[in-house]
Amino acid sequence: MAAKVISGKEVAQQIRAEIKVEVDELKQKHNVVPGLVTILVGENPASISYVTAKGKTAKELGYNSIQDDQPGDISEEDLLALVDRYNKDDSIHGILVQLPLPKHIDANKVLYAINPDKDVDGFHPVNVGKLVIGEAIFKPCTPAGIQELLIRGGAETKGAHTVIVGRSNIVGKPIANMLIQKGPGANSTVTVVHTGTKDIAYHTKQADILIVAAGQPKAVTADMVKEGAAVIDVGVNRIGMTPEGKAKLVGDVDYEPVKEKASLITPVPGGVGPMTITMLMKNTLAAYKYSLNEK
Ligand code: NAP
Description:
Largest sheet: 6 strands, parallel
Number of strands: 11
Mean pLDDT: 96
CATH topology of the largest domain: Rossmann fold
Strand order of the largest sheet: 1-11-8-7-5-6
Order of helices and strands: EHEHEHEHHHEHEHEEEEHEH
Helix content: 40-55%
CATH class of the largest domain: Alpha Beta
Low-confidence stretches: none
Structural class: alpha/beta
Bound molecules: NADP nicotinamide-adenine-dinucleotide phosphate
Strand content: 15-25%
CATH architecture of the largest domain: 3-Layer(aba) Sandwich
Shape: globular
Number of domains: 2
């Protein structure tokens, strides 16, 4: 039987509607709206489109959304000073520095300069530490989106064997840390596999929940998946680029055959992707509530 397809688009819309209600209520009560600044350095086309999408969503939700464009040759010192200015600005609750940064800038130095209370990407070591000890205020956006898809898609994480393909700092490691926590939407037994793993398929075949964040088309094929598994495909790969620069977007999972075996699956596009920006909005709402002492 073919898997139930979880639409990240629909779940994201649901969550945005919930955020909007909360923002409207808090705005009435405090006369302040959530403020999000996105700092974009240079003119990377992918970064421009991500930042534009973030700004558009923030505005739709009634946030004070600022896009601060900086030239690609801005010095590290000036960028750090800019971050510091937003750290001190009470109307700004969330600061996001769009990655990648130009090579002459130490990205970690910039990310670590963000006030952890405004670090809505959740990449500051203070927030990484809080995530590990189960006290996260900001869960990194893509892993947070994956967890919401599991919860709202009806996948039982408690007691499940969850196998994660990939160990990056932005997806694999944080989602592993989130799903081992003792609490709702977690409490899984977690295995993480990567290119150093001896027999990847041996592990993936045991997964009740399989989360794939490898950045490789068909990294997971149907023979690597257990019958009835819930499969979350995080990958975004552009294949078959035409001379006009058009490409097909595919995930890391061999979608059609895996869909026949799984009980639940997320598509690419339209799965994890739409959730990431939504969780950024949720984190900004959390930062705003934190500043208002509204937990
Ligand atoms: P990354 O930093 O390149 O990490 C990929 C990880 O997968 C690494 O740990 C790598 O192992 C492992 N890996 C690569 N090929 C593998 C294979 N065939 N079998 C097992 N493990 C393999 O990538 P990332 O930033 O985590 O992103 C992963 C994918 O998710 C990318 O396609 C990215 O575009 C996508 N993504 C999507 C969103 C979204 O919002 N939808 C957000 C973030 C990322 P080693 O550590 O051993 O090298």
